[in-house]
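A.,

Following up on our hallway conversation. Structure tokens first:
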């Protein structure tokens, strides 16, 4: 295969596929933790979030202080792990970490302050919930509103064992939380897509409109047409001069 053909093949890959290809080449180690320990830190917490790109539900963050004396094998970016493997590792992290904590910011707050800020809020809250409290942070890609020494690391969940552990805990917890809503809103197939933009999920949004727990500020949600029966109900309500809020529209659209 010629160079031009190879270049064309790379261009055809989606951004997410290219990112996964990159992440698979990275090695998750204790390099950054060791640097923090050598600088005098005792309790180094890795911090990460999951769910930024989802259309439904909360963004969830976790913070984990690993025990230097106990090695948990297989830690890596949660996106690179099968669900069954994530579940096994999450249990080991909870059993053997010095400290771990999870925090979530719901869809309504995400719509108010945007997903980037909501992610930072969730991560900061997870850090504040750690007992014992850490004295140094390793954070995936961002800087938190926190006075603790911290090191933002690009692709941190693929490079730092502590951040990878946080990524795994957050992913397992968020998947659990979203799956609980599947029987409440069965049309969106939340148990299988976890709120992300799959063809079936997008088709359900077009057919039924959003639920109250969808992120109304995300384009695929607010671009979704309102079903005719909901429009008729809104017109009937509007005869009294009362506006129907978007969340209420979503509730009525989904039953």
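Then the amino acids I'd put at each of the 255 positions:
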């Amino acid at each position: 295969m010629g160079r031009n053909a190879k270049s064309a093949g790379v261009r055809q890959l989606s951004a997410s596929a290219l990112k996964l290809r990159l992440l698979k080449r990275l090695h998750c180690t204790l390099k950054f933790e060791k640097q923090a320990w050598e600088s005098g830190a005792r309790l180094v917490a890795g911090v990460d979030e999951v769910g930024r790109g989802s259309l439904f539900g909360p963004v969830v963050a976790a913070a984990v202080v690993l025990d230097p004396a106990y090695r948990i094998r297989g830690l890596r970016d949660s996106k690179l792990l099968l669900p069954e493997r994530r579940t096994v590792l999450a249990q080991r992290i909870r059993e053997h970490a010095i400290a771990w904590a999870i925090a979530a910011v719901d869809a309504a707050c995400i719509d108010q302050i945007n997903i980037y800020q909501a992610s930072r809020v969730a991560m900061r809250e997870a850090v504040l919930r750690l007992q014992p409290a850490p004295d140094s942070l390793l954070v995936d890609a961002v800087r938190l509103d926190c006075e603790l020494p911290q090191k933002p690391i690009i692709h941190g969940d693929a490079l730092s064992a502590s951040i990878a552990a946080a990524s795994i805990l957050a992913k397992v917890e968020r998947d659990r939380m979203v799956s609980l809503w599947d029987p409440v809103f069965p049309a969106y197939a939340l148990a299988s897509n976890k709120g992300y933009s799959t063809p079936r999920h997008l088709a359900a949004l077009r057919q039924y409109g959003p639920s109250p727990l969808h992120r109304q500020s995300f384009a695929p949600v607010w671009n979704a047409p309102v079903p005719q029966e909901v429009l008729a109900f809104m017109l009937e309500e509007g005869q009294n001069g009362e506006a129907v809020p978007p969340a209420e529209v979503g509730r009525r659209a989904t039953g």
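Residues 5-10, 237-255 have pLDDT under 50 and may be disordered. Curious whether your intuition agrees with the design.

B.
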